[in-house]
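Have a think about this chain, tokens included, and walk me through the fold.
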Amino acid sequence: MPQALSIHNVDVSYGHVRVLHGLDLEIAEGETFGLMGLNGAGKTTLIKSILGLREVQSGKIAVFGQDRGSVAGRRHYAYLPERFDPPWFLRGMEFIRFSLSLYAHPFDAEGVRGAAQRLGLDPAALERRVQTYSKGMRQKLGLMATVLTGCGLFILDEPMSGLDPRARAAVKDMLLETRRQGKTVFHEGHLLYVGTPAGLKSATGMDNLERAFLKCIDGAGAARLSA
């Protein structure tokens, strides 16, 4: 199966502090991959490295076989930051149109309204300036602008931030739909474990994912887990 994202032997440092240590990771096309870790574990550094916003000291990062910093590589992914703040002077629909134009992707106003409805965003709000939006509404707009680009890889940093339980469920449904379309979703140091949630619980002997995660990181100095 083609690799949507390939990270090989990547080292990243801040001055004399080494943050990522010989990191290896491959995410297959059509896979949904969640990145878990404590604050300061290097999650944001890894995302910035994938986006070309942070230089790597060694190793290689490729998106669908293309160097992450090349024009060809950048065309394959769309990114939603944790603190998404669209230009306040644009209307919601204008922002979507602008975002899609960056990827030369066709704009379909009815399709945008349909996506808004699926996320629980009133389509009428798309005609208002985003300065009138709540944090949750801005987050939904950002997710729409990301997914509607039609890219093969979506990089989402805390996509549920600022959303209520109903909206979180709607976002999960949208991400499942993108997966069924063959898209790849990557969302939020050494990698201690790569595998399924069920596999992590089995490897740690825990029946709760949160406790399995904590046991994994607490035991990092004694043993390394693998899928």
Summary: The two ends are 18 Å apart (CA to CA). Confidence is low (pLDDT under 50) at residues 221-227. The helical segments are 43-51, 71-74, 92-102, 109-118, 135-147, 165-180, 197-204, 209-218.
